[in-house]
Amino acid sequence: DAGITQSPRHKVTETGTPVTLRCHQTENHRYMYWYRQDPGHGLRLIHYSYGVKDTDKGEVSDGYSVSRSKTEDFLLTLESATSSQTSVYFCAISGGTGGYNEQFFGPGTRLTVL
Amino acid sequence: AQRVTQPEKLLSVFKGAPVELKCNYSYSGSPELFWYVQYSRQRLQLLLRHISRESIKGFTADLNKGETSFHLKKPFAQEEDSAMYYCALSSTGANNLFFGTGTRLTVIP
Fold first, then answer.
1. CATH architecture assigned to A4-98+105-113
2. B96–A108: do the CB atoms touch at under 8 Å?
3. Which one of A27, A91, B2, B8 is most buried, by most CB atoms within 10 A?
4. Which pLDDT score is estimated for B99?
5. Are B59 and B109 in contact (CB under 8 A)?
6. Environment class of residue B1 by beta-carbon count within 10 Å: exposed (0-12), middle (13-18) or buried (19+)?
7. CB–CB of B44 and A43 under 8 A?
8. Cβ <8 Å between B97 and A101
9. Domains of chain B by range and CATH?
């Protein structure tokens, strides 16, 4: 597996609380992505980053913010979690020898918002 | 706008039978198409991409621009092929992927 870790791997939280998920890579890839995976929707892009401090919105960015202060870390924050944000969140990276479109995925974080 | 459609949520085949997972796309330019696979308790991983035109684990996929399809095929399914399969598209100049909703393949022994 590419050197991508996500923390925490599982989290249960209550509606209205802030939540931060972390993605850490050791591959020095330029691009990093956050997706959510939901039954019937597949993977949907939340935000992505094309460099330190450079981020852009994806398909389902409402309610989420991201930050990338260094190459290896990409943080996803839910400012005030809602039950609709219960999902499995995947981080991905790209920009290696396979090109920018070959993405490598982390193990996922299962988030439950009660 | 880009769209990737996988019409089958679930697909079951017997071991040794041929399998075809369908993927259709809509995009006005020249897309790059991919198949990703997620085995049980494993990470999502790239299975193959159309530009490489290679066969991985016996799977092949041909881009048909006329039918806007990129179906995944294997002549003889194996039990270890049971997994979730996602078709994905990257548009010209973009660095992100649009995924279909996925097809869960079950190979019956």
1. Sandwich (2.60)
2. no
3. A91
4. 93
5. no
6. exposed
7. yes
8. yes
9. 3-108 (2.60.40.10)
